[in-house]
Write a structure and sequence with these properties.
The protein is α+β, with helices and mostly antiparallel strands and 304 residues long. The chain has helices at residues 8-11, 67-78, 82-88, 151-155, 224-242, and strands at residues 4-6, 26-29, 35-40, 54-56, 62-64, 91-102, 112-122, 125-134, 137-149, 188-193, 198-204, 248-256, 261-273, 276-287, 296-303. It starts with a strand and ends with a strand.
């Protein structure tokens, strides 16, 4: 057996993402099928539109928005079980991400190399681990657990809007100006308790969000990594409301207005560099329910 080298066109046959959401330039699957090595480089004017996944770092340098490094690693891993999923007539659905560590922001205009290893396969669940490096240094690491699901069945359900308006106040001025509007996943403050050090924020996932066409075609779902970013945005807003200067660690969750939990996030830490936040660690993301375009959401965070 020999290694397989997959181009973005080849990857369309393996995973349902399309357009810029199919982030990889190339994926090499090792001969034993246990390891996937992906390469990505996004230069200014990227023909595939992947600058959508960038943010500003210190000094105004374009960098990867941290959660989409997780998406790169997930894409490298899920392809390793494509044949098994195809035999089941299913797609890969990630249920948990854990032990995430991010050493610094990664430049968008320099190559990144991701390596995902299939660690365990049991009863329709798969666990991957790996990391992402830039300039020869491993910057991002984490573990992913995936199961099999019918994305078409999930995606055809109707959006869930809030039954009654939630009283909200405006976010602090300039709170999220370091990234483009489509990467801001809170839009108002619904509650803030400075004594308990908790807050709740609102967000509606737009039906015309630029990520919608590529995740997934004909069955649009909000990317799990953007759900992580929503909680990180809530953490940064809480940080500002509390008047903090240094890092902050929160537990948080994304839920519906009815109370149903979408994602539970444990020990998410934001570090601050030149006044800008970055995710430096997260102990666990546990995904409970999908989000569809048009859904109204609540982001809850509590400092720990």
């Amino acid at each position: 057996m020999t290694s397989r080298v997959l181009s973005p066109t080849d990857l369309h046959a393996y995973i349902p993402h399309r357009g810029p959401n199919l982030l990889l330039d190339q994926l090499v699957i090792r001969a034993d099928g246990k390891e996937g090595i992906g390469e990505v480089l996004v230069l200014p004017g990227d023909a595939r539109g992947r600058e959508l996944f960038g943010r500003l770092g210190p000094g105004g340098v374009p960098c990867w928005s941290e959660p989409f490094l997780g998406e790169i690693l997930a894409l490298c891993g899920i392809v390793l079980v494509r044949d098994e999923l195809t035999a089941m007539g299913k797609e890969g659905v990630f249920s948990m991400v854990s032990r995430i560590a991010i050493g610094r922001l990664l430049r968008l205009d320099r190559p990144v190399r991701a390596r995902a290893e299939l660690m365990r396969s049991r009863s329709g669940f798969w666990q991957f681990g790996g990391g992402i490096e830039q300039d020869g240094e491993v910057i991002f690491s984490g573990e992913f657990m995936a199961g099999a699901g019918s994305i078409a069945g999930i995606g055809c359900q109707a959006a869930q809007t809030a039954p009654t308006p939630t009283p909200v106040t405006a976010l602090p001025a300039g709170l999220l100006d370091w990234k483009a509007p489509h990467l801001r996943f809170i839009d108002g403050c619904a509650a803030f308790d400075p004594v308990a050090r908790t807050a709740a924020f609102t967000y509606r996932y737009p039906v015309d969000h630029p990520f919608v066409p590529g995740h997934f075609p004909n069955a649009a779902l909000m990317m799990g990594m953007t759900q992580w970013q929503a909680v990180a945005d809530g953490a940064w807003a809480l940080h500002r409301l509390l008047g903090h200067d240094g890092e902050i660690t929160v537990n948080g969750r994304l839920r519906r207005h009815c109370g149903a939990e979408i994602v539970d996030v444990r020990e998410l830490t934001l570090s601050v560099e030149d006044g800008l936040p970055r995710i430096s660690a997260t102990k666990r993301l546990a995904f409970r329910e999908p989000v569809r375009p048009g859904d109204d959401l609540i982001v809850e965070v509590a400092a720990v």
